[in-house]
Amino acid sequence: MTKQEARLKAKALVAKMTAEEKMSQLLYNSPAIERLGIKEHNWWNEGSHGVARAGTATVFPHAIAMAATFDPELINTVADVISTEGRAKYNKHVEYNDFDIFKGLTFWAPNINIFRDPRWGRGQETFGEDPFLTASLGIAFVKGIQGEGEFLKAAACSKHFAGHSGPENERHGFDAKISEHDLFETYLPAFEKTVKSGVIGVMGAYNRTNGEPCCAHSYLMEDILRKRWNFDGYFVSDCGALNDIYEHHKYAETKAEAAAVALKRGCDLNCGQTYAYLIDAYEQDLITEEEITTAAERVYTIRFLLGEFEKNRPYSDIPYSALDCKAHRALNLKTAEQCPVLLKNDAFLPLDKNTDKRIAIVGPNAQSVTALEGNYNGYASEYVTIADGVRRVFTNADISVERGCNYCHENTNDWSGFANMISDGVAAASEADITVLALGLDCSIEGEDTGFDNDYTAGGDKKTLYLPATQQKLAEAVCDACDNVVVVLMCGSSVDVGEKVRNHAKAIIHAWYPGALGGLAVANILSGKANPCGKLPVTIYSGNHKLPDFKDYSMQGKTYRYIEGDALYPFGYGLSYTSYAYADAKVKIENDDALTVSVDVANTGKTDGKEIVQIYASFTDSRTYTPHYQLCAVKSVNLKAGEKVTVELNVDKYWLKAVDENGERITPDGKITLYIGGHQPDNVSNALLGYACEKIEL
User: Fold this and answer.
1) How distant, in Å, are the alpha carbons of 130, 528, 559 from that of 678?
2) Is the C-alpha dihedral spanning 170, 512, 616, 544 positive or negative?
3) What is the rounded distance in angstroms from the CA atom of residue 221 to the CA atom of residue 227?
4) How many helices, marked H, and strands, marked E, lie in the chain?
5) Tens of pLDDT along 139-179?
6) What residues act catalytically?
7) Is the pTM here over 0.85, yes or no?
8) What Rg do the C-alpha atoms of the chain give, in angstroms?
9) Which residues contact 15 (CB under 8 A, 6 or more apart)?
10) 51 neighbors 86 (Cβ within 8 angstroms)
11) For the chain, what is the largest distance between any 2 Cα atoms, rounded to a whole number of angstroms?
12) Domains of the chain, start order
């Protein structure tokens, strides 16, 4: 069914509704209209890394972990599985007349906000700090969710539009002040690219941006989204965001006025209950029936595109047995093996899987299922923690496990004289030949608007880039007790384990929130069964790095593109068990819109591996300020030991433009230089990986 056909069907059906019935359909929990044969419909579903909150589903690595693959094709495949499992659930829910929340086909994902500041608690839900990477993975995810068939397989939704990335505890009333330059260079490109690639939904943010609430924003919603980008899908508020318009933003005096201004500016659907006051707004002549009709037609266009009203419903042959099935678990493990980033390796890894040495797994994430899941998660049929994975892979080893401490609160177990568990963790490490330190956070520590503050976080946002103090104490004590320490960090952001631990550890792996089978994936990397290939989608800062004010939305001093000083581990960085060499980079084809770059890539080591080829652009003598470097192309290549191939990458010239103070993309006045390699061309990356990128001057 084409969009035009769906629109015509929607128009015809909506025309049969009364004004009150149309308004009722603009709430996320839309009631049935029995006289028209319309069943109740709940729009709210989540699926950022698996069908969430509705029973069994494959729990893939969280979005920030998948971003570390730098692999749009893989993310597209994962998203296709998510929509397959969504259809499997939906087919049975319809059969059993279950139209409850989290049961439908409108997934409010992906989150394509820019992870502009490492303290933000929701950064784990994003594809990282870079506009190009976020746009590329966002497009791949959207296409995987929506499918290529006659009907939408499921509906994707790019969120949160726009300028949303903390602070969490102020998001309902916060005003993000963003220049036109930063808006169009950093915050909007991923939205523009996913909209122009066909995403069917866009969700507005809680906050204001430059004075106007994001779910009632004349400039963002009307001028940019609808007029400039020609978006013809549906716009939904974040949950409760319309309530914020009058209660926290004080942008409207009543609920009816809040509902009216949101509807007039193009918010078609309300996640929340403020649109229950559309009737008051209508009776007060704050809105017209034509405006109500337009919104109703948009939301019903989506329902027709999903095939809800078809006699033979599309994708109805997908069985319930598809959920977390053998094939999907295999893809999950494959994905999880490609997400971890090897930050350090003193020629210590991989370990011999047949070793009979004593291995201690110590730390609060040693046996944590929550740290596998991240947030916005489903419930897998099987979980493999770090301890479980090490037991499965190192079957001859003598393995002990100790939690060693809590995530943050050292005295949680303070009763009968028992104040902490650090001595137990140190005891296990002291008798071990190798200690795996399973450190990090979970979504109760860094997360979405947690509603509480402690020494480490404020509303889910971190106050420091170091580990929580109790974990730091454990880690340092373990390093004193055991010579051979491997640190495995499970968290969704930049965390520094401190100089003492960094220097002592033989290896450090950033494993993110790696999904249900994440512990097995990490163990496979420890043993060498899997060769690490993940690259950092965010900058890892030193814990004492001076960051700008968290509330300052200017990009100056933020992310690899505008960092002041050096990163601890830079964006785009990641080690492997093999080595790669680059040569003979050149522009092969060029036209007005794009150019093709070719480069020879060789695996110069003794291990097969997957390399992420990256191209960065830099600008000199521009009339406007520009990033140090801007990622503009990526491509994955699998290479056998000793193999050399020529890789071609397409560079969209959109990413070779400078953005002026008015937000316009312009051809830079000066020189454009392209850098091609397995990392960005900064001095820290060059030193850590031991080679400089190939260079082309355009």
Assistant:
1) 16, 21, 18
2) positive
3) 9
4) 20, 25
5) 999 999 999 999 999 999 999 999 999 999 999 999 999 99
6) 238, 446
7) yes
8) 25
9) none
10) yes
11) 79
12) 326-536 (3.40.50.1700), 580-697 (2.60.40.10)
